[in-house]
Amino acid sequence: MNTIECRIEQIVNLTPYVYKVLLAPSQPVEFKPGQYLNLVMAEDDKRAFSIASAPHQPLIELQIGAFGEDSYAMQVIDKLKNSDTIAIEAPMGNAYLREESDRPLLLMAGGTGFSYIKSMFEHLAEQASDRSLVVYWGLRTLDACYELEQTKAIVESLPNARFVPVIEQAEASWQGKSGLVHQAVMSDITSLEAYDIYLAGRFDMVGIVRTDFVEHGANIDHMYADAFAFI
């Protein structure tokens, strides 16, 4: 793990509550798809965020969901907006993509957990991977969606891949899948035994998903999530 100074290149809204942050590191940052970094707010205040960009990309992308004026995440956004640079600690995390495996891949995220799996599928696209891949992204409402068409294009540029967005509280106009994202996975896939599974989302969600997926055939030794270290 290294401490690296980064120039803050861009902060834009993806939705009213999700911010895309682009950082230009002062030196190359080596990391594996699915790892995270710490933003150094102060010496004793370091806050973890998944790296949304892939290792080959020159800028580091973060996707930060910030709700409430003085929330944990909004404090970070306010600091970034009022700074030219920020220090990061990277890389961190053991739930990175196991590239030596040839098992089918299931990437599943809820909300801004999307940033975790985005790094992986963008890396796989850059590598022109022919592994079987399915990407599920669960969102509470249609208003929470962003980059759907872009994601579909990247994922489905691969020969054996598909992208499935799932809206929990879907409106009548929504033509895709609705309900809980992990239940959609279990409805679509008869058994998860063959899959390498990567998960991101709220810790309580990941805990439920782990239990349900194991009951649906998943091998716990082939399931990966940073949340597993805390639940």
Automatic annotation (TrEMBL):
GO molecular function: riboflavin reductase [NAD(P)H] activity
Enzyme Commission number(s): 1.16.1.3, 1.5.1.41
Catalytic EC class: oxidoreductase
Family: Belongs to the Fre/LuxG FAD/NAD(P) flavoprotein oxidoreductase family.
Top-level division of the source organism's lineage: Bacteria
GO biological process, one term: bioluminescence
CDD domains: flavin_oxioreductase
PROSITE patterns: FAD_FR
UniProt protein name: NAD(P)H-flavin reductase
The organism's taxonomic lineage, starting at the top: Bacteria, Pseudomonadati, Pseudomonadota, Gammaproteobacteria, Alteromonadales
Database matches in InterPro entries: FAD-bd_FR_type (IPR017927), FNR_nucleotide-bd (IPR039261), MRET (IPR050415), OxRdtase_FAD/NAD-bd (IPR001433), Riboflavin_synthase-like_b-brl (IPR017938)
UniProt-listed PANTHER family: NAD(P)H-FLAVIN REDUCTASE (PTHR47354:SF7), NADH OXIDOREDUCTASE HCR (PTHR47354)
Domain FAD-binding FR-type: 1-98
Keywords: Luminescence, Oxidoreductase
